[in-house]
């Protein structure tokens, strides 16, 4: 455990394996002091997370989200912090995205059947629980069916971008994601930037439309990558963020919450950025 801040965590509300309550208890057990719950295209887990956190007054929860976005030949994820997640228009848009996830998952399950790797749709729904159905739930069903030992292996061959059973779904583009987060008073943050095909061009383009931060202290990055990203964050005047991207899927070596995180000053900088982005900011 090397950090008491983790700004990238998932729950059963999207593609994590823990309920919000279980995640909060794990974070508290590991000694975390500040976390952000950042489910994919969903804030459905936040109410339960805040309720569970009442048991742990030393633990602070920042409301967050992770938006999936598309550009030709690439997928970009944009995190949002301190957003007014109860905004009705915002929630209506998220609901549309979650509906699209269900249809996409059904198509991918049908493709798997044609590829000789059938899984039971009911088992996929079981793994999703009350949350939004996603590819990790299909991967878990494939592991249960005996096709793979770990969910990651299912992504490598079948479910990842360009995989044999992959099927896309409607998404915002990264600029739209940044603007959407800003409209609800949030701070837009580029997630795991090295996953982009052209990282520096992407950073520069998103900075122009309001990107305020980027992940630097990402648990899957080695020290050299963290140092390189820290230099880029400074060059583009972006707040350095980070976290574990914890899902709890059971893959070998998956970083636990708090494995790596940003310095304490990051929270103050994010708070200041959020205050500036709020409508009617004293004007």
Notable characteristics:
41% helix; globular; alpha/beta; 10 helices
Strand content: 15-25%
Overall shape: globular
Report the order of strands and helices. EHEHEEHHHHHEHEHEH
Through-space gap between termini? 44 Å
Unreliable sequence segments: none
Instruction: Round the Cα radius of gyration to an integer and report it.
Output: 18 Å
Strand order of the largest sheet: 1-2-3-4-5-6-7
Q: What summary fits the major beta sheet?
A: 7 strands, mixed
Count of distinct strands: 7
Q: Look at the helices and sheets and give the structural class.
A: alpha/beta
Helix amount = 40-55%
Mean pLDDT: 93
How many DSSP helices?
A: 10
Written overview of the protein:
With 283 residues, the protein is of the alpha/beta class. 41% of the residues lie in helices and 16% in strands. The protein is built from ten helices and seven strands. A seven-stranded mixed sheet has the order 1-2-3-4-5-6-7. Strand 6, helix 9 and strand 7 form a beta-alpha-beta unit.
Task: Please summarize what this structure is.
It contains ten helices and seven strands.
Topology:
Blueprint: E1 5-9, H1 20-29, E2 34-37, H2 46-52, E3 60-71, E4 74-81, H3 88-114, H4 121-128, H5 135-144, H6 151-159, H7 174-183, E5 187-190, H8 199-208, E6 213-218, H9 223-235, E7 239-243, H10 265-277
Helix pairs in contact: 1-2, 4-5, 5-6
């Amino acid at each position: 455990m090397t950090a008491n801040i983790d700004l990238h965590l998932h729950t059963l509300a999207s593609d994590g394996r823990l309920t919000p309550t279980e995640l909060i208890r794990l974070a508290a057990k590991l000694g975390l002091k500040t976390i952000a719950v950042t489910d994919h295209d969903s804030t459905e887990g936040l109410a339960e997370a805040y309720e569970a956190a009442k048991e742990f007054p030393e633990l602070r929860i920042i409301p967050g989200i992770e938006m999936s976005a598309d550009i030709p030949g690439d997928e970009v994820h944009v995190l949002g912090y301190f957003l007014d997640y109860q905004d009705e228009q915002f929630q209506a848009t998220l609901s549309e995205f979650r509906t699209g996830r269900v249809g996409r998952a059904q198509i991918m399950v049908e493709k798997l059947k044609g590829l000789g790797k059938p899984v039971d749709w009911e088992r996929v729904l079981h793994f999703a629980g009350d949350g939004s159905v996603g590819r990790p739930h299909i991967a878990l069903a494939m592991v249960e069916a005996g096709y793979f030992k770990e969910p990651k292996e299912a992504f490598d061959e079948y479910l990842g971008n360009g995989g044999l059973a992959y099927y896309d779904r409607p998404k915002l583009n990264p600029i739209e994601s940044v603007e959407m987060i800003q409209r609800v008073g949030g701070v837009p943050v580029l997630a795991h930037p090295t996953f982009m095909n052209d990282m520096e061009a992407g950073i520069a383009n998103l900075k122009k439309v309001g990107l305020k931060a980027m992940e630097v202290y990402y648990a899957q990055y080695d020290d050299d990558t963290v140092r390189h990203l820290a230099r880029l964050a400074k060059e583009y005047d972006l707040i350095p963020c980070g976290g574990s991207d914890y899902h709890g899927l059971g893959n070998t070596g998956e970083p636990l919450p708090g494995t790596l995180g940003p310095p304490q000053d990051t929270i103050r900088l994010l708070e200041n950025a959020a205050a500036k982005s709020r409508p009617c900011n004293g004007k």
